[in-house]
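The data are quoted verbatim here:
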Amino acid sequence: MDGTELSVRFDVPAIVLKWPSLNNARRIGKEPYLLLEGTLDECIREFMAKPASTRHLYEIRTAPQPPLVTATLSTEHIVELARLREFL
Protein backbone atom coordinates (compact mmCIF):
# COMPACT_ATOMS: atom_id res chain seq x y z
CA MET A 1 0.00 0.00 0.00
CA ASP A 2 1.10 3.60 -0.44
CA GLY A 3 0.35 4.60 3.17
CA THR A 4 -3.25 5.61 2.61
CA GLU A 5 -5.64 3.98 5.02
CA LEU A 6 -8.48 1.92 3.60
CA SER A 7 -11.71 1.79 5.55
CA VAL A 8 -15.27 0.57 5.20
CA ARG A 9 -18.30 2.27 6.67
CA PHE A 10 -20.57 -0.48 7.99
CA ASP A 11 -23.29 2.00 9.01
CA VAL A 12 -24.35 2.85 5.42
CA PRO A 13 -27.74 1.67 4.07
CA ALA A 14 -27.83 -1.76 2.42
CA ILE A 15 -30.29 -4.47 1.44
CA VAL A 16 -30.20 -8.27 1.39
CA LEU A 17 -31.86 -9.88 -1.60
CA LYS A 18 -32.70 -13.55 -2.06
CA TRP A 19 -32.92 -15.20 -5.43
CA PRO A 20 -35.88 -17.56 -5.92
CA SER A 21 -34.55 -21.10 -6.02
CA LEU A 22 -35.42 -24.66 -6.85
CA ASN A 23 -33.28 -27.53 -5.50
CA ASN A 24 -30.79 -24.98 -4.08
CA ALA A 25 -30.20 -23.39 -7.50
CA ARG A 26 -31.23 -19.93 -8.67
CA ARG A 27 -34.31 -19.97 -10.85
CA ILE A 28 -33.54 -18.59 -14.30
CA GLY A 29 -35.69 -15.68 -15.40
CA LYS A 30 -36.70 -14.76 -11.85
CA GLU A 31 -35.75 -11.57 -10.00
CA PRO A 32 -34.45 -11.50 -6.43
CA TYR A 33 -36.74 -10.25 -3.68
CA LEU A 34 -36.05 -8.05 -0.67
CA LEU A 35 -35.25 -9.92 2.51
CA LEU A 36 -33.84 -7.15 4.74
CA GLU A 37 -33.27 -3.42 4.57
CA GLY A 38 -30.83 -1.99 7.11
CA THR A 39 -27.18 -1.07 7.53
CA LEU A 40 -24.34 -2.87 5.81
CA ASP A 41 -23.41 -4.33 9.21
CA GLU A 42 -26.94 -5.69 9.80
CA CYS A 43 -27.06 -7.12 6.29
CA ILE A 44 -23.70 -8.87 6.69
CA ARG A 45 -24.89 -10.36 9.99
CA GLU A 46 -28.12 -11.61 8.37
CA PHE A 47 -26.17 -13.09 5.47
CA MET A 48 -23.62 -14.81 7.70
CA ALA A 49 -26.45 -16.38 9.74
CA LYS A 50 -27.54 -18.32 6.63
CA PRO A 51 -26.17 -21.84 6.09
CA ALA A 52 -23.00 -21.73 3.98
CA SER A 53 -24.59 -24.14 1.50
CA THR A 54 -27.34 -21.61 0.63
CA ARG A 55 -25.39 -18.33 0.70
CA HIS A 56 -25.06 -18.31 -3.10
CA LEU A 57 -28.81 -17.54 -3.21
CA TYR A 58 -28.33 -14.19 -1.43
CA GLU A 59 -26.64 -10.91 -2.27
CA ILE A 60 -26.13 -7.58 -0.59
CA ARG A 61 -26.50 -4.29 -2.43
CA THR A 62 -25.17 -1.03 -1.05
CA ALA A 63 -23.51 2.22 -2.11
CA PRO A 64 -20.02 1.52 -3.48
CA GLN A 65 -17.04 2.36 -1.27
CA PRO A 66 -14.08 1.96 -3.62
CA PRO A 67 -11.88 0.04 -3.67
CA LEU A 68 -13.19 -2.42 -1.04
CA VAL A 69 -16.99 -2.37 -1.46
CA THR A 70 -18.83 -2.72 -4.75
CA ALA A 71 -22.53 -1.98 -5.34
CA THR A 72 -23.44 -5.69 -5.43
CA LEU A 73 -21.49 -7.94 -3.11
CA SER A 74 -20.74 -11.56 -3.98
CA THR A 75 -20.74 -14.36 -1.42
CA GLU A 76 -16.94 -14.39 -1.22
CA HIS A 77 -16.79 -10.61 -0.88
CA ILE A 78 -19.34 -10.61 1.97
CA VAL A 79 -17.41 -13.29 3.86
CA GLU A 80 -14.22 -11.21 3.55
CA LEU A 81 -16.03 -8.06 4.74
CA ALA A 82 -17.35 -10.01 7.73
CA ARG A 83 -13.76 -10.95 8.62
CA LEU A 84 -12.62 -7.33 8.19
CA ARG A 85 -15.48 -6.13 10.40
CA GLU A 86 -14.25 -8.39 13.23
CA PHE A 87 -10.87 -6.60 13.22
CA LEU A 88 -12.30 -3.07 13.33
